[in-house]
């Protein structure tokens, strides 16, 4: 079958973004629970992807369950996990200085890395609720001394109850300005995250789809990885926004509730 002829019914494996597709403000989006139940009951291989590197899969399982979604740990793939997998391939048993929380440090430990501020191979920047100026200064010095600069995701801002707050991309820009070194960014929209997810569930791009709510991350990365792309309007990108982009998703639905009957 030509990839141009694919439909949702032809898809064997699914990747889906989390925020804006399955949940919004810690509440399940209508149709999300039913979609997960359908995948589980029909033994479909699937992964929930997120650029959030703060939480471990177990943490995210608990947060999703509180929102009404039952998703096993093994079906969650974070930018922290993708970063750890990338670095494991780059430098098995390497050393890293990390700015981040449990999601990132746990993933790197599991990948066999030593976390240290003494002559690390990498400086790895992820999401954290409280960026330390002391830690950022240490990162700048280590990168200037030769450590390679890696970030989990490019997002410049993140949400908080009080409004937006600086996120990984903003802090990375500060470090880049001070060191004149640009980081390698593993998370969406880098197709690297999608390829590592495909390896995780032993899926092929020709028979896998990506569901996302953002044209500039989910859809472009899915397209570049060769996946069938599904845009839903339950998050960031709205119908009037699509014309601003020089590419198109394979199909568009208001939400996953409208996708469900097509499977």
UniProtKB/TrEMBL annotation:
Official protein name in the record: Hypothetical NagD-like phosphatase, Actinobacterial subfamily
Co-factor binding details: Divalent metal ions. Mg(2+) is the most effective.
Taxonomy, superkingdom: Bacteria
Alphabetical UniProt keywords: Carbohydrate metabolism, Hydrolase, Magnesium, Metal-binding
Active site: 17, 19
GO CC list: cytoplasm
Record GO terms (molecular function): metal ion binding; phosphatase activity
Positions that bind substrate: 188
Cofactor requirements of the protein: Mg(2+)
UniProt xrefs under NCBIfam families: HAD-SF-IIA (TIGR01460)
């Amino acid at each position: 079958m030509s990839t141009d002829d694919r439909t949702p019914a032809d898809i064997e494996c699914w990747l889906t973004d989390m925020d804006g597709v399955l949940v919004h403000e810690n509440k399940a989006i209508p149709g999300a629970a039913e979609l997960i139940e359908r995948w589980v009951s029909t033994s479909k291989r699937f992964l929930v992807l997120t650029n959030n590197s703060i939480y471990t899969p177990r943490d995210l399982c608990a947060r999703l369950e509180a929102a009404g979604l039952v998703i096993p740990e093994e079906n969650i793939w974070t930018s922290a996990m993708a970063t750890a997998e990338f670095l494991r391939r780059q430098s098995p048993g390497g050393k890293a200085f990390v700015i981040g929380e449990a999601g990132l440090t746990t993933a790197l430990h599991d990948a066999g890395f030593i976390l240290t501020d003494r002559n690390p191979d990498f400086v790895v920047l992820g999401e954290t609720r409280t960026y330390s100026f002391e830690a950022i200064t240490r990162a700048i010095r280590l990168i200037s001394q030769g450590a390679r600069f890696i970030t989990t995701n490019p997002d410049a801002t993140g949400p908080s109850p009080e409004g937006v707050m600086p996120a990984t991309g903003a802090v990375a820009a500060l470090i880049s300005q001070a060191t004149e070194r640009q980081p390698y960014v593993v998370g969406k929209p880098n197709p690297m995250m999608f390829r590592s997810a495909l390896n995780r569930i032993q899926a092929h791009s020709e028979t896998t789809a990506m569901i996302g709510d953002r044209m500039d991350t989910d859809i472009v990365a899915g397209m570049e990885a060769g996946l069938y792309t599904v845009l839903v309007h339950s998050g960031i990108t709205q119908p009037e926004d699509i014309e601003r982009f020089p590419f198109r998703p394979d199909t568009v639905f208001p939400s996953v509730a409208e996708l469900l009957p097509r499977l």
